[in-house]
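User: I'll paste a sequence; please echo it back and then give the predicted structure.

Assistant: Echoing your sequence first, then the prediction.
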Amino acid sequence: MDTKVTLSFNEEVIHRAKKYAAENDISLSRLIEFLLNKVTSDNYRSLEDYPIADWVNELAEGKAVYQTKRTRKGSKQEYFASKK
C-alpha cells in the first residue's frame, strides 16, 4: 500500500532527479522509494557507513584491476585459449 509523504528538496536537486527518472523510465516517487529502500535495507548507522558503490569500495581497498585496452587480435587469442 502506498502512503503519501511531503518532502522538501533543493530546486536544482529536484530538476536533476526528475530528468534522471525520466531518462530511466521511472517515476520520481519510485526512484525515491528505491533509494530509501537501499539505504534502509541494511544496518547502516549513518550515511558514512553506506557504500557508495561496490566498485568504489573495491578501488579504495585495492581489489580493482586496471586493464589496458585490449586489441582485437589479443581478445581473439584470449577467447580461443579459454576454449581449449
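Helices lie at 11-23, 28-40, 54-61, 72-82. The first helix runs from residue 11 to 23.
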